[in-house]
Amino acid sequence: xxxxxxxxxxxxxxxxxxxxxxxxxxxxxxxxxxxxxxxxxxxxxxxxxxxxxxxxxxxxxxxxxxxxxxxxxxxxxxxxxxxxxxxxxxxxxxxxxxxxxxxxxxxxxxxxxxxxxxxxxxxxxxxxxxxxxxxxxxxxxxxxxxxxxxxxxxxxxxxxxxxxxxxxxxxxxxxxxxxxxxxxxxxxxxxxxxxxxxxxxxxxxxxxxxxxxxxxxxxxxxxxxxxxxxxxxxxxxxxxxxxxxxxxxxxxxxxxxxxxxxxxxxxxxxxxxxxxxxxxxxxxxxxxxxxxxxxxxxxxxxxxxxxxxxxxxxxxxxxxxxxxxxxxxxxxxxxxxxx
Length: 339
Ligand SMILES: [Ca+2]
Ligand SMILES: [Ca+2]
Known about the structure:
It contains three helices and 23 strands. By secondary structure, the chain is mainly beta.
């Protein structure tokens, strides 16, 4: 083999490896705390193009601004927040998703979650308003509002973007600690609270608290107590998804090409704050404006316990506003999948 041929073969092997790992498409950006994050793992699922594009279920509403997702595998409902002021629920029925209802409530809605999988309410995070709101599912009515401005400040459209509920059970199991380093293993409000705490992720790009996650213990009367503030691996965060099967929290970073940070809710002191322990970071299979993510066990007859689904929302709708992945085999989830 000539030197020229050997060189060509070497380049071909390198090129194939780059394609396989995605490093050619997704060069790694700088990582804060790189000592604890050795590398960004490649995406453990099907390619973006091979995931099911659900955008046709509501193409006019999702033309832009789809930003928050919450998958409830118990009820087979996919909840979606659009920052043009409407949230939507899709129903999984006979193997497909169909639109069940829209809720045009107004506000800069950037994230959505539930505290009770079978309850009759959903919680929305409004960014410019800096508030969490609870709405009834059946009646669509606003039930309560928690204003967070006194804690977060007025960050306008560079503010709270991600919302997740951590039930008491996982606060205890996860060894959750407050800002002072004290174990915070349940809501302090008893029957007046929600049976857990809310985590709020903020963008705040260019500010001191960029990418941080705040913990709030909400009371049913609209007041709250601040539990802590946690730095993350990157300087922008736009979505949170908590997996109650594994106790892992997924933090979506819409910066440096989009990554998913995985933490087990443990934290350590970092200056005046704390910082979540980063177990790993995963490359998101898109470089668009990805602002929504959710995951959970599959809702499928005969599904194994290790079969996971996940969803991404693209605020800019460059290659579909909403994608449904059914081969998500992140290392916390087991796998392989039976199909
Ligand atoms: Ca969001
Ligand atoms: Ca916004």
